[in-house]
Amino acid sequence: MQRICVMGLGYIGLPSASLLAANGYQVHGVDVNHAVVDALNSGDVLIYEPSLDVMVKSAVSSGRLTSAVEPAKADIFILAVPTPFHEGHLPNIKYVEAASRTIAPYLEAGNLVILESTSPVGTTEKVCAWIKEERQDLLVPGTAGNNGGEQLYVAYCPERVLPGRILMELVSNDRVVGGVDMASTAKAVAFYRSFVEGEVCATNARTAELVKLTENSFRDVNIAFANELSLICDELNINVWETIALANRHPRVNILQPGPGVGGHCIAVDPWFIVSSVPNTARLIRTAREVNDYKPQVVMDMVKTKLGSFTAPVLACLGLSFKANIDDLRESPALYIVETLARENVAQMLVVEPYVTELPASLQDRSNVQKRDLKDALDMADVILLLVDHNEFKQVDKSQLLGKVVVDTRGIYN
User: Fold this and answer.
1) Domain range for residue 396?
2) 132 assigned to active site
């Protein structure tokens, strides 16, 4: 039985680890958060993803999934750690570097190291350099002193999954696999073909890195068009939802829906990785990011205008997650909007988020913020701000909105 060590047990690492255990691999998961490790070793999960809790319990009870704060020897090492950015939207790959150096003492000739974290172009090559600095005795591809002998294999394979469908899409989606050299590509392709039903496409590491960034930048640019169109419609007093619906009746037009901004770790972050690499060339990608980053401010200005009609306003904020029907708050424009309005103390705020049990720390100690269920919030509010199109919010009877001021950033009450 092949052994796999997964570094990082978050929204990608944990589903990947449990899926690999279900496919017969012996998996050792690693996370620096002791609470995550303790929960997993008890068969519990601290994040929400459909069916993940069942798969984790099965994997842990079978003994094929263990967790710790330190790595263990393995045949394959998967790096699934965060890649945020510094101030100024510059990539921050310190977690990738830390994971690379942490696994170095456990590596042996013939091992395969795979970076799955979304990363700037050239990061996989840096993984090789970091490992080589720690292990001069290993033959590491892309570094000096590799003349013969069994080497280490290093490749890049980005995740391409949608929260809420992760376990399904880890298996069904096509994967792009790029090694630092041809031997690494071949070894990594063989690994993914052991459990992926979609096509496994072979390329080189730099191309694979750019493919992932390209996918999310493409989506970001298209969302920016919809968001900019919503601003244009507001200025011209035209219904943006009707405009898009009618325009989309053209057989070659498919405009996306606008929203309060763009969130999640991928679309809100990845385009900046391209911009940072070629700042003078990626002009359209930069502009799209700026449009989407500006949209939350537009929403907040609109809300404050509506609240100005009331002497002691009550504001119901529907949703905190970055997209519908998940608990993921990473880079969420909804959360940013609520945090900012709370900090500015614009109203008594009632927050409705059915996918989290308690408010995030940034909102917990604010006297003007309460977590409420949907019915109470709708009954008590003067102004209703819809930020996330959760299914529960879509099922609201329109009669519950009578007499309320509604700011609908998703178009479901429009």
Assistant:
1) 308-414
2) no
Report which secondary-structure segment, H or E, holds 171. helix 166-172
Q: Model's pTM, two decimal places?
A: 0.89
Note the Cα 39 to chain centre separation in Å: 22
Cβ atoms < 10 Å from Cβ of 237:
6
One of 212, 295, 306, 323 is an active-site residue; which one?
A: 212
Domain assignment present for residue 4? The answer is no
Which DSSP category does 173 fall into? S
Q: Can you tell me the mean pLDDT for 41-56?
A: 89
Catalytic residue among 5, 128, 157, 266, which? 266
DSSP structure string for 8-64: --STTHHHHHHHHHHTT-EEEEE-S-HHHHHHHHTT--SS--TTHHHHHHHHHHHTS
Q: Indicate whether 112 belongs to any domain.
A: yes
CATH classification of the domain holding 344: 3.40.50.720
Q: Which of 143, 198, 190 is nearest to 170 (CA)?
A: 198
What per-residue confidence (pLDDT) applies to 339? Answer: 97
- Active site annotation includes 266: yes
